[in-house]
What we know:
Blueprint: H1 2-17, H2 23-74, H3 88-98, E1 103-105, E2 116-125, E3 131-142, E4 148-154, E5 159-161, E6 181-183, E7 191-197, H4 212-218, H5 221-224, H6 258-262, E8 278-289, E9 295-302, E10 334-336, H7 357-365, H8 374-380, E11 391-392, H9 395-405, E12 436-442, E13 447-452, E14 458-462, E15 466-468, E16 471-475
Amino acid sequence: MGLVHSRYKFSRQFLRRDSGFTLTELVIAMVVLAVVASIAIPSFLGSRNNSYDKEAQSSIEVVLRASKFLYQSQGDFSDASSAQCGDSTGLAANLQKLEPNVDVVASSVSSTNSRIVSVQAVQTWDSTGGLLGCQGFYAVAFSSSGSCWAARIILEGKYLASGNASPVVVNAQTNTSNNAVTTWSALAVNGNAFGVLKPQTSAADGDNTNNLLAIKIACKAKTQSTGSADVSSYYIAPSQFYSSWRDTTSGGTASSSTSACTTGGTCIVGDTGPGGGIVFYVRSAGFACGPTLAATCKYLEAAPQGWIVSSYPTGQTNCGSAGGTNGTSTDDPRCVWSGNTTTEIGSTAGGQTIGTGYKNTVAIVSQSNTAGKAGTVTRAYRGPNNLDDWFLASKEELTQMCKWQRNQAWQSDATLCNNTGILNTGRNASGFSATYYWSSSEGSADGAWLEGFFGGDTTGTNKFAQNSVRPIRAFG
Length: 476
């Protein structure tokens, strides 16, 4: 009997001790759960948002297919009752018949979810300003992730009138006629293009000041088909449309993010380039580049502020010992262009167009008495990734850098830098002096071209003059 009682007592004690957790055990369990949640929840939210975005993209794609059927049946993107673009309500109704599984709405109606697609047909013009008809089409859908996705089709109309906002503005909007016509040379206007407007992203894929409500209200084809060349807080600029869907992340710049650009991926203006500088010019079609113009490049990258006193390479020559003044961590050096003012280098240093700066600079450096002068100093820079292809910008390359630094919207390569915009503000690579900058483009035996970053004026001056320099490189 005593043995039975003893076993019963032991079992009861064992069960009582196993019926709960100590405070220490509870704390450890809570810490483990917190760690797991910190990993799992962001991953889940990211996957969920990606799913939302894919749904919006899929809705747009089926509407694009329907629009192409409509185009094949009547030769343009207009509604059936009009030879031109007509009423977007009629266009939406026609597309709805072709694609009943998605709600297609007129251009003035905002998309409020991924199953509602707002559509707009737009007119285009030929190279003489003649109206081509309704050859452009936009489809826009709002994702539950808070992003507004848009797609565009342009079948005819690479040449567009400056006074018309759709589908792409390529010149200043100074009138409402079709007379002023220019070519959008840096962007493939014809064909399919895709863009996204996201909250709290870099301006590369939508302005970063948008809140969810503002994006949702602006997620309609009437707003996203304005085609303005400027970045706005509530529409996707033409330069923000790409050849495929591009996912963006908070603070990033899509699949063409800084990390992708630095490792050979697609770059956009404002990205950190492979050389550690900032990409300030993009021409997707490419341009001749390199020391002999035998290569093809798409991008120009400017060295960052303080480049002259960086440790790349050690002992880099400054300009103070060669007739100029030394640069600092905040100011670019002011250098003499060349030591030879009696012999013209000639065509090998006379290039002014985009892509010729490297060739010009090699010709300058090959002269005698060029140590510590503009071309030699820029060629000596290596940057954090030890690249040896830095050079002094040509005349037109310098103009593009001037426009970028002054925060002027790109309209065409031929558009000049002017005194609008803000110098040294709003760019990752600041520190440009409000002075003249040397180009590598020779003007004569004793003179070369330069540009005033304080006012954008281009002029020539004696090669012995002291002017600021900033290395650039071409790549891609």
